[in-house]
Structures are given as C-alpha cells and as structure tokens.
Design goal:
Blueprint (H helix, E strand, L loop, with lengths): L11 H12 L15 E3 L10 E3 L4 E3 L14 H13 L6 H8 L3 H15 L13 E9 L17 E8 L4 E6 L4 H11 L5 E5 L13 E5 L7 E2 L2 E2 L1 H18 L7 H13 L5 H9 L6 E2 L21 E2 L1
Parallel strand pairs: 4-7, 7-8
Antiparallel strand pairs: 1-2, 2-3, 4-5, 5-6, 9-10, 11-12
C-alpha cells in the first residue's frame, strides 16, 4: 500500500480523475476524431472505470488512449506511484526497486520506467542563452561501448560519450554521441545555443573554433588545475555530470547503449524541474505523456547512436 497521502496514489477512480484533470484541463476530448462535443461518460456496474464514448465517431476511449499508459494493464494508481518515485529520487530509482515497491514483475517495472522517461523528454527546443547569458558546454565519458574500436585500446575511444550544455540559472540539454568531434560539437552548439550567448568551456580543442561564432568564449585550463577565473568556469555542468554519473553507476549500473538517450532525458528533466517540489515535478512529467506511446518493436535504426534531434530510434505511436 502506498504511504503517499494523495488519494490518486492508492485509489483507481481518483487516479483517473487526476489524470483527466492533467490531460483534459478543458474537459474530455476524443483521441480518435479530436471532437470535444457530444461526449458522454459510460456508467453501469459492468463498465470499466473512466470510459467515455464519442457520439461523433461512435468510438469509446479513456484518458489513457494516445499516452504512454495506453494498453497497460497496470493499475493507474501504480503508474502514479512509479512516476512520483522516479521524479522525486535525485539520482533515479532502479527497476528492481520499483518492482519490489509496486509489487509488479521486473519486466513490467522496466517497461514502466522507460515509458515515463519518454514522457519526460522535451519536444521542440528553443535556443538556449541569449544576450547577457552564459552557457557552459562540456563532454564526459563513462562506461564502455557495446561495440569497441578495433585497436583494442583503453580510454575515451572505447567509452560512451555524452555532450551537455547548461545555461547558468537555467536548463540543461545532454546528447549521446558516437564520438565527440569538432564538427559534431559545433552542430550541437549551433542548433541549441543563441549566437549572442557567452560560451564557457574547458581548454578542449573541440570548442576553440566554434567558440569564435558566439558573443564570447571563456575557457579554464583544468589540466593546469585552473577551475575558476572570474566568471570563467564550468562548475555548473560538472555538477550536472556528477549527479548523472552517480545515478548511472550507483543506481542503474547496467544500461544498454541504445537506451542511454532515455536516461539522459530523465536526468535532464529532473535537473530542469529542480526548483519545484516533488508533487509539482510529478505533475510536469504527467503533462508529457500524450502522443508518446512506446511499443518497442525493433528497427534497423535501433542500433544507431545519434544526437537528440534524431534519437527516436524506437517506434512511437501517436
């Protein structure tokens, strides 16, 4: 039984009512035809909870249709519990822990967490920064690639690479890339950062040329143990990487490389919603469930590793 006080964490009817208030703030809308008129709620002892009928297209639906919860046989209140636990745990919560807490199978808990990570993913990015703003950029390496390079050497060449951007006082965006190259880093920066921004990086040669395309480019020399020089530092992005690595190494431990972008979306979401409480963060995640149903059918693209703009390697049914 849930120890969370809100009724929608342990009562199915209350859970449906809560989800309807989040997904349909202006009243029920048919996910099949888009109609908002001539919609009635079905009643009766044999009727499932939360079933509506659209008398324009003559189809039945619930608030779960067209969301990451569609076709799930897990009670909705358990989905709310899982979402709260995932949103309130700073470094994440493992599927094994969820399967014990929610009393579902491990496979179910794993699928639930991936659906919720999909809900956390942000669609449609506005440029970061702007005049007077500072964006820090850096890359980090962790774990081992599932397909290693042929030279057999150790080091960054055989580790998974994540490039991240963080606006001071604002949001973070992180990207899983096959290799950190000058061109790849430039493409990410140009697509995500306003050119009027001041860019802050370490001494890496990846940023030397692209830094000239922004209003300013300040660097610190970490190899010489220089970490702060006035307003020049990358401590904000290093702090994000610290949380990310603690979560990946201490909580999740085993993450298939093809799923890494979903874990990045999870850590990005929690960081970007850090200024609100756990309940508000959970509600923000629930607002992202529409149009993101996952089916996990395999595709030829599923093995590829690309930037965030091309990360939808698993099928998403709208």
């Amino acid at each position: 039984m849930s120890v969370l006080p809100a009724p929608y964490f342990h009562d199915e009817e209350a859970a449906y009512a809560k989800l309807e208030s989040v997904v349909w703030p202006n009243g029920p809308a048919c996910p099949h035809c888009g109609g908002v008129e001539r919609i009635g709620k079905l009643k009766g002892g044999a009727t499932r909870i939360g079933v509506y009928k659209c008398y324009q297209c003559r189809k039945q639906f619930t608030v779960k249709v067209g969301t990451v919860f569609e076709s799930s046989h897990v009670p909705l209140y358990k989905w709310f519990q899982a979402c709260y636990l995932l949103c309130s745990s700073k470094k994440g919560i493992s599927s094994h822990q969820l399967h014990r807490v929610l009393e579902v199978t491990y496979k179910t808990a794993w699928f639930m967490t991936h659906r919720l990570r999909e809900a956390m993913k942000t669609l449609g990015f506005e440029p970061m920064g702007g005049q007077g703003a500072t964006v820090e950029a850096d890359e980090t390496y962790f774990g081992e690639k599932e397909v290693k390079t042929s030279n057999g050497k150790r080091g960054p060449a055989n580790k998974r690479c994540v490039v991240a951007l963080v606006e001071r006082g604002g949001n973070v965006r992180s990207f899983h890339v096959a290799r950190a190259t000058k061109q790849g880093v430039r493409d990410i920066l140009k697509a995500n950062v306003d050119p009027a921004t001041c860019l802050n990086t370490d001494e890496s040669r990846l940023y030397k040329e692209v830094g000239q395309e922004f209003a300013g480019h300040a660097t610190v020399n970490h190899s010489a143990k220089e970490y702060v020089r006035g307003d020049a530092y990358t401590n904000t992005i290093e702090g994000y990487f610290s949380i990310f690595k603690r979560g990946m190494n201490g909580i999740y431990q085993h993450c298939a490389e093809k799923h890494l972008h979903r874990y990045l979306a999870e850590f990005d979401f929690r960081y970007n919603e850090r200024k609100v409480d756990d309940s508000e963060r959970t509600e923000a995640a629930l607002k992202g469930i529409v149009g993101k149903r996952l089916t996990y059918r395999r595709s030829n693209q599923e093995q590829g590793i690309v930037c965030r703009a091309q990360l939808d390697t698993l099928y998403i049914d709208g």
